[in-house]
Amino acid sequence: MSAYYQLLERTINDEGVVQARYQSTMNTQGAWNPDEQHMSPATGVICAELEQFAPRENMRIGRISFDIFGLISLGEIEITTQVIRPGKTIELIESIMTGQGKTLVVARTWRMITQDSSVIAGLEDQVVETPENMPDFDGIRKWPGRFIKTVEARSSQYRNGKGLVWLKTDLEMVEGQKTSDFVNVVSMVDIANGIIPRQSTPLKWGFPNLDLQLHFYRLPQGKWLGLETVQQYGADGIGLTSSILHDVHGPFGRSEQILTLRKID
Length: 265
Prior knowledge:
InterPro entries: ACOT8-like_C, Acyl-CoA_hotdog, HotDog_dom_sf, TesB_ACOT8-like_N. The chain has helices at residues 39-52, 146-149, 181-186, 192-195; strands at 3-12, 18-24, 59-68, 76-85, 90-99, 102-113, 151-159, 162-169, 172-174, 205-206, 211-216, 225-233, 238-247, 250-260, 262-263. By secondary structure, the protein is mainly β.
């Protein structure tokens, strides 16, 4: 199977609410539990729905906030997407992923009007080395699960808790559908939490993330995602993974993931 999901059905009601049913493939298998999906492809399939949802000229996604309600089980899922705050220049879209009778992920997306702001454009995030001449990075291979095996990784700059890692996948997000650069790249961002943990292996503490916050000052292009990532642990059981997001043309946004630190027995 050369995709992460199979689309089973999509319907739109009179109020414009879209419901889409998908079957996950084993390519979505996560690292913490063999019966769960990794959050990365779950992010990707939600973004695939967002990209198709009631597109409007001169508007684009500026922020997506994902809250993870629990283990995302392998198998059939449903994504319900609707506008919850309409507007002429900004609108708030909600996508809810459910499976096995449970809420799995809730995503809220701000879609915003675009205009020519080049006269004041400026970034503080710096351009980094691109992946062309970097060696393969086997740091992510310590993680189990089929999803990680579908991702190519390269890096020449990393240590425990900090690094720059480039990622690429050639699998389609949905079988039979061409995956856009946006969906392809954004689908890999959640991997940031596992690329450069602050601990040496074997891990003594687990650090699953409860959310994924994405902010884009432009949309990504191409197939490569660069994660310039820092992972930090507080002293009271809570941590944070922060990343500057890059494509081969430069930085395009940032991500944050809040972590619950759990001692491994």
